Amino acid sequence: MTSPTPAPRDLPWSQGHWLNPPEQVSPDGADLLVTARAGSDFWRTTSYGFVRDDGHALLTDLPPGTAVEVGFRADFTELYDQAGALVRVDASTWIKAGVEMSDGLPQLGAVVTHGTSDWSLAPVPEWAGREVTVRVSRSGDALTVRARCEAEPWRTVRLAWLDPAAKAQGGLFCCAPERSGLTVRFTRLAVGPADTSLH
Known about the structure:
Blueprint: E1 9-10, E2 17-19, E3 24-28, E4 31-35, E5 42-44, E6 51-53, E7 56-61, E8 66-73, E9 82-90, E10 93-102, E11 105-114, E12 116-117, E13 120-123, E14 131-139, E15 142-149, E16 155-161, E17 169-175, E18 183-193
Antiparallel strand pairs: 1-18, 2-7, 3-4, 4-18, 5-6, 7-17, 8-14, 8-18, 9-10, 9-17, 10-11, 11-12, 11-13, 14-15, 15-16
């Protein structure tokens, strides 16, 4: 698939607002270093039986017809270390997509939540330690999730339903469900027009 067009517009980190502020936030040149609190996560019920809504997310408005892009370095070492893009309506309606450590490998995946969460993933060991971009487009009743590593082609990750009338926000997220000390290097937060097609 060719790169989605037109190109999104970079946002200054100060333009977003924090849902559940992280332990530490530090600008580093053009990047943003975000340290997650131990035990932070987004999940609702399925299989594990718990509800967690204390992951960290820097969000901005995501009306219909727009897309959000998040860039970060996939430098994870511990189980469930994760970062990527989050689209959120409320505590029971959201989607997170990005890279997460599971089964000893970085995995490209998404969690879609409408009351309860699901989870899909695929191993991407070759992405370890490299820059990843996740793009979520909102068009009609659909969220289209794509991702790529550095300048490689985009991959379609997920097509998920979202009420076209819902008021949603989108942006970057990170969580550290199993440990303290996870610091994620975010390289980009951008918004722009939604992709015009699925393929």
